[in-house]
Amino acid sequence: MQLPPRYWSAARDGALLAWGWSATSIDEATWMARDRLTALLAALGSGTARASYGWVPPREELVHEVRADDGTLIGVVTRNRYGADVLGTDQLLIADVDVPRGRTGSRVRRFFGRSQPEDDPKTVALQRIQTFANTHPHLGVRVYETYGGFRAVVTGTGLAPDAPQAAEMFGQLATDEVYAHLCRKFHTCRARLTPKPWRCGMHRRPPEWPAADAAAETALSDWLAAYRTACGNARTCRLVLASGPSPNPQEWQLIDVHDRATRITDEQLPLA
Q: From first to last of its 272 residues, what are the pLDDT tens digits of the chain?
């Protein structure tokens, strides 16, 4: 996989804003921003702005690179627009399965010896994932409960996130359609590692990154410090089940990054 852009720059014309990015320098990002703003203004003048604005990668700060023993980049941790850390990788498939919040709350009671209706949303979703695992015994399947449903990490596929066979597997797992679309668009599967800020008491959005000046940089640093403190009262997911063959060393390395950051062993903490 490729590293996300390290450098970002904005170009403005009144209310119009265009971002430029670069893997090598802020000057190159600035040049791109100006070039894209010029193209946007021309497109607005001709009535084709939507078609001409172009593709933009996620504007996220690179927090950590995950590299195999031989130096190969196998994953990145970035900070998304609302301040949470996110793992991105093309080495394994990660399915985001949303479930309407209902009777189960944050626990899958049926799978822990307590009676639960057959049509309970989380019960149905977990049974679907188990069916997938049973019909693909050659694959490893790790299932995590999240605040909004489940996360299924599938190992041993050898598939790129944008491969047609990956799309079929996402469909079998009832993966969130928007999430699956983004996996195809950016050729990367993603997993949020830290809680959503508003679920752990942080109701103010973080200042925009990259910071425009020193004052904005300080504000962002202060927000991140408060967020890290708030994250101490919650975790992101917990492991529900694991089946199939063991992951290969690179997959295990990514899973270890995921499991440590999401604090799956802190059973006393609520999901957020």
A: 989 999 999 999 998 999 999 999 999 999 999 999 998 888 888 876 554 555 789 999 999 999 999 999 999 999 999 999 999 999 999 999 999 875 544 445 444 444 455 678 889 999 999 999 999 999 999 999 999 999 999 999 999 999 999 999 999 999 999 999 999 999 999 999 999 999 999 989 999 999 989 999 999 999 999 999 999 999 999 999 999 999 999 999 999 999 999 999 999 999 99
Domain of 65, in residue numbers = 59-262
The count of structural domains within the chain is: 2
Q: Whole-prediction pTM value?
A: 0.89
149 within 8 A of 161, measured Cβ to Cβ? no
Instruction: State the DSSP code for 26.
Output: H
- CA 170, CA 175: separation in Å to the nearest integer? 5
Quick one: 177 and 242 in the same domain? yes
